[in-house]
Design a protein that fits this description.
Strand content: 25-35%
CATH class of the largest domain: Alpha Beta
Number of strands: 17
Shape: elongated
Number of domains: 2
CATH topology of the largest domain: FAD/NAD(P)-binding domain
Structural class: alpha/beta
Distance between the termini: 29 Å
Helix content: 25-40%
CATH superfamily of the largest domain: FAD/NAD(P)-binding domain
Radius of gyration: 22 Å
Bound molecules: flavin-adenine dinucleotide
C-alpha cells in the first residue's frame, strides 16, 4: 500500500528548469506537490546560462539553487532526489515508482524529464561540450563573437548553421567529418562568403589556451576560437510518457496541447521533452508554468 505521506495532488517528474517552474506555480496554488528529480539538467556542462531574462550569464547550478530556495516558503511542495522508473494509471490517479522502490500516488503528473544529448564519439568532444564546443549561438554565440570558428556539421545542418552564424562570425570552417553533403548552390554561397570546407575525418579535439586545437585524420591541425556542433540526434526522455500511453511523435517529442496537457487526461509535460527545437530555458519556464497552472485548474474544476 502507498502511505498517505506518499500521496500528492501533483507529482512533477524532473526537477530542473521546467519542473521547478511548475512547482512554483503549484506551491502558489496551494497544491500538495512532490518534485522527483534525478539531478542531471541538460545545461549542467555549461559554465554560464545566457539569454535568460534578468539572469543573463548566471551558472546553471545557481539558477536552480535560486529556484529551489524560492520554493522553501511553499510548504505544500516537497523536493525529493529520485529517478522515477515506472508510471502507471490507477483508478483515480497515477502511481510512480522510483529505482529504489519508493512508490508515490498522485492525482496529476507533470513530466519534465528533458532530453539527452548523444554526442558523436570524437575524442575530446565530450570534455569540451558546453565549454568551447557549443551548439546554440543564441545561448553562447555572443561570448565567441567575431572569433574564427569551426563548425562540425554536414548537409542541411551545415547549411542551417552557415546562415545562422553569419551575423556572429565571418571566418568559418566547416568540418564535414567525411564526404561533403552540402548542396552545390550553398557551396557557391560559401565561396562568396569565404567560408572553408574540410572533409577530412576528425581525429580529436583539445583545449588550446582560450580556443580549441583540432587534429584531422589526414594529419592536418587546426586552431580555432570555438567549435559549433549539434548532436545529430537527441534522445527524448519519454519512457514514462510512453508507459502512461501518451502520444509521442516519431522523433520522440511528447505531444502536448496549448496548455501543455498530453493526450492522456491528467498527464502534463513541459520543457525540452515537448519541443522538437526551441530548447531554451525561457521555453522550459513558460511550459512548466502553464502545465502547473492547468494541472491546478483541472484539480479545481474536478472539486467544484
Ligand atoms: C550545453 C548546453 C548549454 C545550454 N545553454 C543554454 C543557455 O545559455 N540558455 C538557454 O536558454 N538554454 C540553454 N540550453 C538549453 C537548456 O539547457 C534546456 O532548454 C533546458 O535545460 C530544458 O529544461 P528542462 O527542465 O526541460 O530539462 P533539463 O534541464 O534537461 O532537466 C530535466 C531534469 O529531469 C531529470 N530527470 C530525467 N529523467 C528523470 C526521471 N526518470 N526521474 C526523475 N528525474 C528525471 C534530470 O535529471 C534533470 O534534472 C543549453 C543546453 C545545453 C546542452
Amino acid at each position: 500500500m502507498v502511505s498517505n505521506s506518499n500521496t500528492y495532488e501533483v507529482a512533477v517528474v524532473g526537477g530542473a528548469t521546467a519542473g521547478l517552474s511548475a512547482a512554483l506555480t503549484l506551491g502558489r496554488t496551494l497544491r500538495r506537490t512532490i518534485v522527483l528529480d534525478g539531478g542531471e539538467p541538460r545545461n549542467k556542462p555549461a559554465a554560464h546560462a545566457h539569454n535568460f531574462f534578468t539572469r543573463d550569464n548566471t551558472p546553471p547550478s545557481e539558477l536552480l539553487r535560486i529556484a529551489r530556495e524560492q520554493l522553501q516558503p511553499y510548504d505544500t511542495v516537497k523536493l525529493h532526489q529520485a529517478i522515477v522508473t515506472t508510471a502507471a494509471k490507477k483508478d483515480d490517479g497515477f502511481e510512480l515508482t522510483t529505482e529504489t522502490g519508493e512508490r508515490f500516488f498522485t492525482k496529476k503528473v507533470i513530466l519534465t524529464t528533458g532530453v539527452q544529448d548523444n554526442l558523436a564519439p570524437i575524442p575530446g568532444l565530450a570534455g569540451l561540450w558546453g565549454d568551447r564546443v557549443i551548439h546554440c549561438p543564441y545561448c553562447h554565440g555572443y561570448e565567441v563573437r567575431r572569433l574564427p570558428v569551426c563548425v562540425i556539421a554536414n548537409g542541411e545542418a551545415a547549411e542551417h548553421y552557415a546562415i545562422t552564424l553569419s551575423n556572429w562570425h565571418s571566418d568559418i570552417t566547416f568540418l564535414t567529418n567525411g564526404e561533403n553533403r552540402i548542396g552545390a548552390e550553398m557551396l557557391d554561397k560559401f565561396k562568396e562568403k569565404g567560408y572553408k570546407v574540410n572533409t577530412a575525418p576528425i581525429a580529436s579535439l583539445e583545449r588550446s589556451g582560450q580556443g580549441v586545437a583540432i587534429k584531422l585524420e589526414n594529419g592536418e591541425s587546426l586552431e580555432t576560437g570555438a567549435v559549433y556542433y549539434r548532436p545529430e540526434k537527441v534522445l527524448f526522455r519519454n519512457s514514462l510518457a510512453e508507459q502512461l500511453g501518451c502520444e509521442i511523435s516519431p522523433d520522440g517529442v511528447v505531444t502536448v496541447n496549448a496548455v501543455y496537457e498530453t493526450t492522456v487526461p491528467g498527464v502534463f509535460a513541459a520543457g525540452d521533452l515537448t519541443h522538437p527545437g526551441l530548447h531554451q530555458l525561457y521555453m522550459a519556464v513558460a511550459g512548466g508554468h502553464l502545465a502547473g497552472t492547468n494541472a491546478n485548474r483541472m484539480l479545481t474544476m474536478e472539486a467544484w
